[in-house]
Specification:
This protein is of the alpha/beta class. The protein has one domain: Uracil-DNA Glycosylase, subunit E (3-Layer(aba) Sandwich). 46% of the residues lie in helices and 13% in strands. The chain contains eight helices and six strands; from the N terminus they run αβααβββαβααβαα. The strands form two sheets. The chain has a four-stranded parallel sheet, sandwiched between helices. The longest helix has 23 residues.
Length: 203
Amino acid sequence: MTPTRQVGGQLDEVRREAAACTNCPLYRDATQTVFGEGPAGARLLLVGEQPGDQEDRAGRPFVGPAGRLLDRALVEAGIDRDDTYVTNAVKHFKFQSRGKARLHKKPDRSEVAACRPWLDRELALVSPALVVLLGATAAQGLLGSAFRVTRERGRLIERPGLPPMVATIHPSAVLRADDRDVQFDGLVADLRVAADLARSAAR
């Protein structure tokens, strides 16, 4: 068995374990665990906040409106999503009901911490050349609560015990912004930095 196939099998095993996760109360209301997906040997690994309504129903990360915007940004940055591994810091959808709608609620630190072992295993198995942190929840989950995406975005971040990282805004922040075009261009610029760093690391 090739190393990549072996890692793929190990990821599948962790995915099955995560499907039964009860580490925090979020599993009670969510439809299912939404684990990461992508090639086992991906050079880029993207970490978002948590699955949204459509992701929760589909069981796949970044397939809703924010995911479609991310796909556009990746294309403009010269990144093939099929070559990336995408996941979230939190694997269950946290929401509040308003009528028939399920509205996103920001996960708290304890929920991010409860999911950290799953993310750590994904990072260890995929062993990417670079991690892209999409938004504050992902960034602070790995780098601590003092980290500010607005101050550190678009630059190489190195910490002991972690792969090299680049932080940027979450695609959902672009969707909420009044200056959406400006924010989208900023996201693309940060992703281009990440792509260049990943290519350099792979040489």
